[in-house]
Amino acid sequence: MNRKQIDALNGSEQQNGEYALRRSRRANIIAAVVCLALAFVVWVVLMGFGDSDHVALTVLDQQEAYRYTLSNDLVEVKGSLAVLRSTTEIGVRLKDDDGDGVYRLSDGELELLLPDGIQLVSNFELTVTVEAK
């Protein structure tokens, strides 16, 4: 067997032959840029879709001498996927925190601090009970 026959059996003739696929370095760079641009467009489209999720509630500015109890630990919110992924919790601020008592969202005693792009799915009742330790 001569060298040509051995190369033909191994398939290396196709890689170096007359009909082998040859691309320039410029074509490879253009193909890579097109693939990256397509991946970016797909990512932007997917992250722009709206969805809903449950997010934890946290009382802000808690004082050491008091124990704060929330009636709901989670709230359902809606927004784009990108905003929902970056939102881990929603802050609840007591407007007039004067010690022991029960504060209600419906009475205007509480303030929900929603991040930009996040909305509540439905109205809900939230009560914060503050007790001395």
List the helices and strands and how they pair.
Blueprint lengths: L2 H8 L1 H5 L8 H24 L1 E10 L6 E5 L3 E7 H6 L2 E6 L6 E4 L5 E4 L5 E2 L6 E6 L1
Parallel strand pairs: 1-4
Antiparallel strand pairs: 1-3, 2-8, 3-7, 4-6, 5-8
Quaternary arrangement of the chains shown? single chain
Could you name the CATH topology of the largest domain? RNA Polymerase Alpha Subunit, Chain A, domain 2
Derived structural class: alpha+beta
Cα gyration radius (Å): 30 Å
The termini sit apart by: 93 Å
CATH architectural type of the largest domain: Beta Complex
Q: Work out the helix count.
A: 4
Can you walk through the features of this model?
This protein has about 130 residues and is an alpha+beta fold. Helix content is about 30%, strand content about 35%. The chain has 2 domains: about 5-45, no CATH class; about 50-130, Beta Complex (RNA Polymerase Alpha Subunit, Chain A, domain 2), CATH 2.170.120. The longest helix has 24 residues, at about 25-50. A 5-stranded mixed sheet has the order 6-4-1-3-7. It has a 3-stranded antiparallel sheet with strand order 2-8-5, with no helix packed on it. The protein contains 4 helices and 8 strands; from the N terminus they run αααβββαβββββ. It has helices at about 5-10, 10-15, 25-50, 80-85, and strands at about 50-60, 65-70, 75-80, 90-95, 100-105, 110-115, 120, 125-130.
Give descriptors for this structure.
single chain, 133 residues, alpha+beta, RNA Polymerase Alpha Subunit, Chain A, domain 2, five-stranded mixed beta sheet, three-stranded antiparallel beta sheet, 4 helices
